[in-house]
Automatic annotation (TrEMBL):
Protein name: Putative transmembrane protein
InterPro entries: DUF3025
Entry keywords, A to Z: Membrane, Transmembrane
Length: 269
């Protein structure tokens, strides 16, 4: 099939961190071969130090959990579809985070005494890792009073304060980076209600002096380090309607943010 990259509008603002790589992959005939060449070029390894490669789904042995197979072999089963292409794109872009998530998943499988991934309950840590892998966004805010205020408002679902009152922070002192490959897949055909599970990170002033590629590397190492603890994600993720990010959608007026079906008040309020 044609590369799934050709189905994506790489000009969308949320795809800026992936644009160069995505456009490069749009131009190839054999996209899995191109992915593997890039993985080798970038020296991407899993948490056991094995080279990561993207293989046909048929290479996944029967009754073996996907996460266990990736951990033991370095091979990532990749179907001929947009979802798995985007998963590979995230491996290329945030390899340390992906390796750490795979390590967490593999550890939870081992704890449950299964390699099939289905014989016992998943548990909170494994569920949180799966949600993060599929649907996460990262909100980077400065380690300052303004950054703490924005983070607190987001957790309280104070949408007008987040996107209107403090909206000028976005694109300058605050950044949203998308991580979840299912989230990216939904945004190929964007609609207003798409909501990410968001991890908020406070960043030092020096972060904002970095280039875009250096920022990506900094994020990769920082988040991977934070995920070293199995319960690192539990209770930390907060909703973010991604098309509410200033500049990510047209018509972002007062009525846009007043839509309570998307910008929902916090429960109990």
């Amino acid at each position: 099939m044609p590369t799934p990259a050709a189905l994506i509008d790489w000009s969308q603002p949320w795809l800026k961190p992936f644009r160069i790589l995505g456009q490069r992959l749009s131009a190839v005939d054999d996209w899995r071969l191109a992915l593997n060449a890039l993985a080798e070029e970038r020296g991407i390894r899993n948490y056991q130090g094995l080279p990561v490669s993207f293989v046909a789904q048929a290479e996944l042995p029967p009754a073996t959990a996907y996460e266990a197979f990736v951990g033991s072999s370095g091979k990532v089963p990749t179907r001929d579809n947009l979802h798995d292409f985007l998963n590979a794109l995230i491996w290329l872009s945030f390899p340390a985070i992906k390796a750490r998530l795979n390590a967490l998943q593999a550890a939870e499988l081992a704890k449950a005494g299964t390699v099939s991934g289905s014989s016992k309950p998943r548990g909170a840590a494994r569920d949180a890792a799966t949600i993060f892998d599929e649907n996460a966004a990262l909100l980077l805010v400065p380690d300052s009073a303004a950054g703490q205020s924005l983070s607190a408002a987001l957790r309280q679902h104070q949408w007008q304060q987040v996107f209107v009152d403090q909206g000028p922070m976005f694109g300058g002192a605050a950044e949203v980076w998308l991580f979840g490959h299912a989230l990216l897949e939904k945004l190929v055909q964007p609609y207003k209600a798409i909501t990410a599970h968001t991890l908020v990170l406070g960043v030092p002033e020096s972060y904002f002096a970095l280039t875009g590629e250096a920022r990506r590397g900094w994020i990769d190492q920082r988040v991977a380090a934070e995920l070293a603890q199995p319960d690192a994600l539990i209770g930390r993720l907060t909703p973010l309607p991604v098309l509410g990010v200033p500049g990510w959608s047209s018509g972002q007026d007062q009525a846009f943010y007043a839509d309570a079906a998307v910008f929902r008040p916090k429960r109990g309020k």
